[in-house]
């Protein structure tokens, strides 16, 4: 985040470390400060009126330990300034796989695959139709690798499915390929709109 230019739009996931509610001294409006962290680092995120209203409508209670996914704008007015992360939208991380997964890659190793495992994997994956492609990566006894794409039948990825794959195949047997993030056009701040309006009047 620190390397991104001002007004960069991002989508990141992490766990809430802390959250505090405050009120602006100038406007009296509420805002929130959330510390979001992953396994390596943390970022301070600001939540203003629009984001807070969306969170309230979705009945999300921001508490420490909550895994979340946010879309945000990086605000960095000066090069030496530590960037601020302005939250535009926040959702529970558990809701992300069904909507944001482009491909589910399942790794099958011949030396540890149980006789009934493939049938169980197929039954679990194709239980709920959806828009995610399943890709099987078969690793043979001779370390040969074969990829099989299930193009005809796409699925919905849920956390329940991923837990079931862990039970069938063991941990680290799958990877999720996310849908690329295409941020909306950069928001035009009111001061810019006012300036543009004044210039149009002059013309």
Structure description:
With 203 residues, the protein is an alpha+beta fold. It has five helices and nine strands; from the N terminus they run βββαββαβαββαβα. The chain has helices at residues 49-57, 96-100, 117-125, 159-169, 190-202; strands at 8-23, 30-37, 42-47, 67-75, 84-92, 101-109, 129-139, 145-155, 174-178. The radius of gyration is 22 Å and the shape is elongated. It starts with 7 loop residues before the first strand and ends with a helix.
- Global geometry: elongated
User: How many DSSP-defined strands?
Assistant: 9
Q: Order of helices and strands, N to C?
A: EEEHEEHEHEEHEH
The percent range for helix content is: 10-25%
What's the topology here?
Elements: E1 8-23, E2 30-37, E3 42-47, H1 49-57, E4 67-75, E5 84-92, H2 96-100, E6 101-109, H3 117-125, E7 129-139, E8 145-155, H4 159-169, E9 174-178, H5 190-202
Parallel strand pairs: 3-5, 6-7
Antiparallel strand pairs: 1-2, 1-4, 2-3, 4-5, 6-9, 7-8
Helix pairs in contact: 3-4
Which characteristics define this entry?
five-stranded mixed barrel, alpha+beta, 203 residues, elongated, 5 helices, 23% helix, disordered C terminus
